[in-house]
Fold this sequence. Notes:
The protein has 252 residues and is mostly beta strands. It has helices at residues 70-73, 192-195, and strands spanning 17-22, 30-33, 40-43, 50-51, 56-60, 63-66, 79-84, 100-106, 111-117, 124-127, 136-141, 149-152, 159-162, 170-171, 185-188, 200-206, 239-240, 250-251.
Amino acid sequence: xxxxxxxxxxxxxxxxxxxxxxxxxxxxxxxxxxxxxxxxxxxxxxxxxxxxxxxxxxxxxxxxxxxxxxxxxxxxxxxxxxxxxxxxxxxxxxxxxxxxxxxxxxxxxxxxxxxxxxxxxxxxxxxxxxxxxxxxxxxxxxxxxxxxxxxxxxxxxxxxxxxxxxxxxxxxxxxxxxxxxxxxxxxxxxxxxxxxxxxxxxxxxxxxxxxxxxxxxxxxxxxxxxxxxxxxxxxxxxxxxxxxxxxxxxxx
Length: 252
């Protein structure tokens, strides 16, 4: 998603999703979004949401402001920050069987951020607001020690993979109820990772926008002159994950 770029005066914006990683230390990825609010941190592994006033302290009209926590701002260490623009202020989406507490969505950029309270029911649906089916859905129970879970069109929503794991995608229905997202809804089963009763969840949805972002799959050839992946634009951020077996997440 073409957002991990150094900002110039003409393309500054107020982000709604910020991912930060210390490049010089084994700190976790830090996830922040405007729906949950500044200082509300999720890491890339098995931990509930924490409030840390010394991390990302504000989303501003030209970027974001940081405190001094070592995960985001150790003196002399190098960091990377990926910023995504959604729809700004969040409002409830009441299309599905579960109303969102707040959803920030941009159909221009193909990103939706939604927070909802799980009901523990198989087949529960949550509205995303994108107007077309998301190709990537990431969910996280923000109240318990669960990892992010991701489903994607490339593998099909009968499968899913953990963001903190190198294991092959699992063929199991307890996350997305073996149901692909529609143009309006994401469907969940009963697992604590995505729809635990009375626990708040966060949901990030992405769909391709021609000339801006792309989600696709390819078959490797094992050669140094590997396959060329057509996106229609020069990407600023590339995220790769093997879906036919085990493998690490790679980000460039």
